[in-house]
Specification:
The complex is a heterodimer of chains A (115) and B (111).
Chain A (H helix, E strand, L loop, with lengths): L3 E4 L2 E4 L5 E7 L5 E7 L5 E9 L2 E4 L6 E3 L9 E3 L8 E8 L9 E3 L3 E5 L1
Parallel strand pairs in A: 2-11
Antiparallel strand pairs in A: 1-3, 3-8, 4-5, 4-9, 5-6, 7-8, 9-10, 9-11
Chain B lengths: L8 E5 L4 E6 L8 E7 L6 E6 L2 E4 L4 E4 L5 E6 L8 E8 L13 E6 L1
Parallel strand pairs in B: 1-9
Antiparallel strand pairs in B: 2-7, 3-4, 3-8, 5-6, 6-7, 8-9
The chains are: A mainly beta (115), B mainly beta (111).
Chain lengths: 115, 111
């Protein structure tokens, strides 16, 4: 299984440009998440989804948009990129449900630089 | 969501046992305690999860006292490869809506 796949791995954007970070999971997980991580800091939740067609804001949603049209895919859209959005972006998925060992699986990240 | 508090950093030596404590005074009845490990330039990786008492797997042990207001991640006989950031998370996994990370504990292992 591929798990959680993020593309691209690296990207340089100019201020004001837009782009979509792709995230796909092949584990049939209901829950998916987008985080950003600034250097030396912890992860901040941007948006999350509990199933296809359902999304909600996290801690730092401003400047981003998401959609969840299928169970597998959860793209993150940056409109009008700003230097403050320079960060590493991680996508994660989790199956959900009760019981122990309900773990989230993370992708390898997308390193984004806005210049 | 219960707020968690952990040490910012810890140092230890190869072969030692390392214990990282997390405080979560406002833990709710349905909350579980989950620990993740993150290496540089990688996404976090699940280590262990528990509700009460003690949980052990091939990587670590998790000790949770009866009042559940804190928990301790125990790493036996650490090696250099255990150098990482460790995150303690508290939440209701049955609803599993938001997963919020704190600042974590940066563990450095020396030869």
């Amino acid at each position: 299984n591929a798990g959680v796949t993020q593309t691209p791995k690296f990207r340089i954007l100019k201020i004001g440009q837009s782009m979509t970070l792709q995230c796909a999971q092949d584990m049939n997980h209901n829950y998916m998440y987008w985080y950003r991580q600034d250097p030396g800091m912890g992860l901040k939740l941007i948006y999350y989804s509990v199933g296809a067609g359902i999304t909600d804001k996290g801690e730092v949603p401003n400047g981003y948009n998401v959609s969840r049209s299928t169970t597998e895919d959860f793209p993150l859209r940056l409109e009008l990129a700003a230097p403050s959005q320079t960060s590493v972006y991680f996508c994660a998925s989790m199956g959900g449900g009760s019981g122990l060992n309900t773990e989230a699986f993370f992708g390898q990240g997308t390193r984004l630089t806005v210049v | 969501l219960a707020k968690t508090t952990q040490p910012i950093s810890m140092d230890s030596y190869e072969g030692q046992e390392v214990n990282i404590t997390c405080s979560h005074n406002n833990i709710a009845t349905n909350d579980y305690i989950t620990w993740y490990q993150q290496f540089p330039s990688q996404g976090p990786r699940f280590i262990i999860q528990g509700y009460k008492t003690k949980v052990t797997n091939e990587v670590a042990s998790l000790f949770i006292p009866a009042d559940r207001k804190s928990s301790t991640l125990s790493l036996p006989r650490v090696s250099l490869s255990d150098t990482a950031v460790y995150y303690c998370l508290v939440g209701d996994i049955s609803s599993a809506s938001k997963i919020i990370f704190g600042s974590g504990t940066r563990l450095s292992i020396r030869p």
